[in-house]
């Protein structure tokens, strides 16, 4: 039995930019796995850079809250990544809740603690994920969180070098990237995690723009239009316009009525305008909001 024959496909569970994801079974161990098929003829240079990046990074990572890459199988025109199988992603979990129901507060707290643990581990390895969103956060039936999809992740160096701004799905994209910053840090992941935190608490996205400017304006209407006093240097960013409407900051508590005061405090510290003022993932884990966190059994 060759390497690919070892895995028997059961059903298709997703489609991405570079291929298809199947639910499959490892016939050697009888374990369920996720089989990500990547077609190699999409790009003239062969294997997509996102796949190479994902393989290289995941092979170096070992964390209970990050999806495990079990195997890589190549054929003439396809590449297969074999991952541990997880039942659903966070978006599916939220959509499956009965209409009008929100996730229990202790579940939101537990999932955020696990997500921030994964992010803290990544950042300690000098890796930025750069595409945090509910679809990339897997959730087991027992409530265990697994961070997935490292196609846009990259290692970073100090001092920071210019990076592409074509990262992070729009609704979770931080304002510094929307405003054209080419140098950014781990703080981009913290903003995205904050947007996910709010979405879990509300069961609806916090900022659901349909374009970059609409996304910015939605953020400004809630947090106020930024200036150099609250965010030194913001007016120097490439996409900043002095003609932006001048909105005043609104009260997040009025939007997030189901998040307790400690949760609101954590969220506000994760979504500071100035990236240098945002909590690190490590410090976020020490926030009083998590003092009574309950971890699921697994």
Descriptive report:
This protein has nine helices and ten strands. With about 300 residues, it is an alpha+beta fold. The chain folds into two domains: about 80 residues, Phosphorylase Kinase, domain 1 (2-Layer Sandwich); about 200 residues, Transferase(Phosphotransferase) domain 1 (Transferase(Phosphotransferase), domain 1), CATH 1.10.510.10. Strand 4 and strand 5 form a beta hairpin. About 5% of the residues have low confidence.
Q: What do we call the CATH topology of the largest domain? A: Transferase(Phosphotransferase), domain 1
User: Which structural class do the helices and strands define?
Assistant: alpha+beta
Uncertain spans, ≥5 residues at pLDDT below 50? Answer: 158-165
Distance N terminus to C terminus? 32 Å
- Can you name the CATH architecture of the largest domain? Orthogonal Bundle
Largest sheet: 5 strands, antiparallel
Quote the beta fraction. 15-25%
- The figure for the number of domains is 2
């Amino acid at each position: 039995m060759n390497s690919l024959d070892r895995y028997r496909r059961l059903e298709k569970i997703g489609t991405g930019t570079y291929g298809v994801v199947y639910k499959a079974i490892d016939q050697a161990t009888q374990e369920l796995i996720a089989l990500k098929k990547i077609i190699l003829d999409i790009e003239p240079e062969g294997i997509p850079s996102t796949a190479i990046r994902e393989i290289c990074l995941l092979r170096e990572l070992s964390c209970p809250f990050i999806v495990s890459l079990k195997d890589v199988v190549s054929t003439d025109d396809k590449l297969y990544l074999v991952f541990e199988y997880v039942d659903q992603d966070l978006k599916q979990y939220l959509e499956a809740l009965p209409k009008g129901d929100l996730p229990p507060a202790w579940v939101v707290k537990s999932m955020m603690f696990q997500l921030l643990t994964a992010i803290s581990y990544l950042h300690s390895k000098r890796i930025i994920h750069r595409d945090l969103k509910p679809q990339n956060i897997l959730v087991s039936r027992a409530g265990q969180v697994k961070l997935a999809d490292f196609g846009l992740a990259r290692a970073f160096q100090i001092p920071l070098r210019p990076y592409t701004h074509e990262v992070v799905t729009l609704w979770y994209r931080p304002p510094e990237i929307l405003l054209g910053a080419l140098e950014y840090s781990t703080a981009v992941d913290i903003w995205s995690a904050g947007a996910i935190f709010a979405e879990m608490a509300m069961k609806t996205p916090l900022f659901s723009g349909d374009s970059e400017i609409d996304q910015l304006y939605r953020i400004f209407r809630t947090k106020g239009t930024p200036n150099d006093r609250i965010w030194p240097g913001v007016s120097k960013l490439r996409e900043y316009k002095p003609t932006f409407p001048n909105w005043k900051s609104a009260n997040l508590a009025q939007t997030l009525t189901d998040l307790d005061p400690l949760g609101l405090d954590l969220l506000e510290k994760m979504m500071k305008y100035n990236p240098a003022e945002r909590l690190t993932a490590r410090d976020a884990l020490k926030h009083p909001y998590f003092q009574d966190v309950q971890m699921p059994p697994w």
